[in-house]
Predict the 3D structure of the following.
Amino acid sequence: MAVATLYQHQIRKKLEMITKSACQPFVSWSGIVPSIAPVYLFKLGETSSFSERFYWSDRSNEVVYAGIGCTYVIDEEGDGPRFSIIEEKWNDFLNMTEVHGEEEKATPVLFGGFSFDPLKKKTDKWTHFSNAKFIVPTVLLSLKKDCAMITITVPSKNNQSMLEEIDRLLGLLYTKSFHPTSSLPRCVTYEEIRTDEWIHAVRQIIDGIQQGSFDKVVLAREVRLQFDGQLTPSAVLEHLCEQQPFSYLFAFEQAGSCFIGASPEQLVKKEEHTFYSTCLAGSIRRGRTSSEDESLGQVLLQDEKNLHEHRFVVEMIRQAMQDVCEDVKISPEPQLLKMRDIQHLYTPVIGKSDSRVSLLSVVERLHPTPALGGAPKEKALEMIREAEPLDRGWYAAPIGWMNAMGDGEFAVAIRSGLLQGNEAFLFAGCGVVGDSEPFSEYEETNVKLKPMLSALGVKQDER
Ligand SMILES: C=C(O[C@@H]1C=C(C(=O)O)C=C[C@H]1O)C(=O)O
Ligand SMILES: [Mg+2]
């Protein structure tokens, strides 16, 4: 028997055995498998009967996940305490699940995200993206430091068709080789949504800041692209993997809509008792030559307006981390974070806490930082709700994963867009402060659109 089919066969046998003798409503089994690109499993999802998919890769590619199918969903549409509800329901699920496997530390993983602002009126395109939505995938492929593992989570009863579909998927995963998708449909229209209104709102915010109503407001805008064919999320994801390998890559697909992006920004990561966060705000483009790039970086490091934008974020994250951690370490000066299309001011933060502090409670405390909302938080949110000509949906909100030990990581879902049929809706924002200039802020958002435009094969200068 070929190695591949041997794996498929053994997994099937194990699952049947475990589910037969299970005392709990769900079982989760994990096993080490030959290394394979998680993006391939994501792509195979297109031919499966499972209609949910997700993908996650952190900035250092230490943890990469691809998940297909949805064995359990936690969906919170109200504007109540969505962070603690997710946490409670995840614990309920874990209490209903028997965990088996070859690896001691293997557990099911919960993946999902939040909307930016539950008080903003939801538009149709975000219908499948609740204020908080998390799934436990049926098939999860994880790659950690080059070790690949499959985790299968299924109900213990009435799971026959699910087991058959898993079997078929694993068969494909190990018998067919992965061919990258070469082409995407062509972009036929590029429409900036309500740009005049956006520029006007930037001016209004600058005035508001000068009058002392608030200190900083992050304002986003939207562009809508139409293509001459259906967009395939896996093809866009493959491009992101190639073009933005050192970003957080994420994709969350629900009923044919895929929210996808390549963000440079960590919100928070929990590893046992250690919390990591980053302050990221203040931007400049990359140079065309290395010397131009270097001097643009130096300009950014010394630019008062950008340093001012950055300081609000540092102060807020410092405070939030000090509220829950002892021993918060934070660099005294920002450094540069250079991504493919843009460079940012960046200050990492690390803190240690006791075991009672959960990951989602810190997500709640941090979201939205002044890098995505503004300062003071509530006033900035009111201004965004009122003046921003779009529904952010999941853009600029926390997206990420958690395991059964309570460890996990959330990124801020920027440099992102929603793919639906032959359309893509992309979003980009910028931190408006007292000495902002509307046209340069507009240009900054153009630079921030580049990662998604390149992944969609659209050249900004030629549009
Ligand atoms: C809001 C976005 O990015 C944020 C705003 C930044 C800025 O204004 O300098 C920089 C990084 C991000 O925190 C975005 O990319 O859409
Ligand atoms: Mg900025």
User: Anything to note?
Assistant: Residues 123 and 391 are 6 Å apart (CA to CA). Residues 282-283, 309, 430-431, 444 surround magnesium ion (ligand 2) (CB under 6 Å). The first helix runs from residue 3 to 20.
